[in-house]
Amino acid sequence: MLEVQQLSHSFPSGTESTQVLSGIDFRVERGEMVALLGSSGSGKSTLLNLMAGLMKPTEGSILIAGRSIDKMSENELAVFRRTHIGFIFQAYELIPHLTVRENVELPLVFQGLRSKVRREKAIELLTRVGLAGKTEMFPSQLSGGQQQRVSIARSLITEPAVVFADEPTGNLDTKTEAEIIDLLIELNENSGITFVIVTHEHEVAKRTKRIIQLRDGYLVEGGAAEALADVTAAEAEPLTEVRP
Ligand code: ADP
Ligand code: MG
């Protein structure tokens, strides 16, 4: 479904360039739900934006559903993104003057679907994310958690191959965070959509079946258990030195 091969990325800084990702290699199977865990500045958002085709990598390639998105032209990529990739942002990024339903319909407007079909699909998805009674409200009339539900519905309306979420619970309290993660897990289990969720919180990462951990732009090797042991060790009290 998703394959990242020898991916490296640098940003220009003055006359030099700063490398923020180095030799990243991994794959995500169809229907998997994966957490991309790492502390602030470790390169999570850069990696997510590269995988979602929002930027081109300096080196390496990214395959989604068997296609190299880094080799596509701008136009090809724009169409591919709209049809095969969903994105959920930390700050929801809803359009304030459109209703909840219109926000969710928007990706289908670009696909030229008739308004009746769009409306039906949007209402069906909004019902699925628990917002059946809110379809004609505006985003500002909803709580943060409800706005993120709208954004989740919008990310799914094109039936994408993969949905990327960048710190989707970063603006929410702990209780709402748990509810949003519950919803993402439920959608993953019942729809088979592949999710990659960026987070810096291991409490969130632990809820997924697999963790990919980044540290200073490098992938930390090992599965979920190892990544968590690592986080726990980093948080533990420093060991006092024992002399023989
Ligand atoms: P994370 O999401 O894990 O916090 P980022 O991917 O946002 O990390 O950033 C990784 C590193 O890349 C940081 O050192 C950040 O300052 C740098 N960086 C991110 N975006 C840019 C950019 N557009 N230009 C220059 N440096 C950037
Ligand atoms: Mg980030």
Instruction: Count every beta strand, where a strand is a DSSP E run of 2 or more residues.
Output: 10
CA distance, first residue to last residue = 53 Å
As a whole number of angstroms, the C-alpha radius of gyration is: 19 Å
Overall pLDDT level: 91
SSE ordering: EEEHEEHEHHHEHEHEEH
**What's the name of the CATH homologous superfamily?**
P-loop containing nucleotide triphosphate hydrolases
User: What would CATH call the architecture?
Assistant: 3-Layer(aba) Sandwich
Structural class: alpha/beta
CATH level-3 fold name: Rossmann fold
Give the class-level CATH name.
Alpha Beta
Shape: globular
Report on the biggest sheet.
6 strands, mixed
Strand order, main sheet: write it out.
6-7-8-3-9-10
3D structure, described in words:
There is one protein chain. The chain has 244 residues and is of the alpha/beta class. It has a single domain, classed as P-loop containing nucleotide triphosphate hydrolases (Rossmann fold). The protein has eight helices and ten strands. A six-stranded mixed β-sheet has the order 6-7-8-3-9-10, sandwiched between helices. The chain has a four-stranded antiparallel β-sheet with strand order 2-1-4-5, with helices on one face. It binds adenosine-5'-diphosphate (ADP) and magnesium ion. Adenosine-5'-diphosphate is lined by residues 11, 20, 38, 40-46.
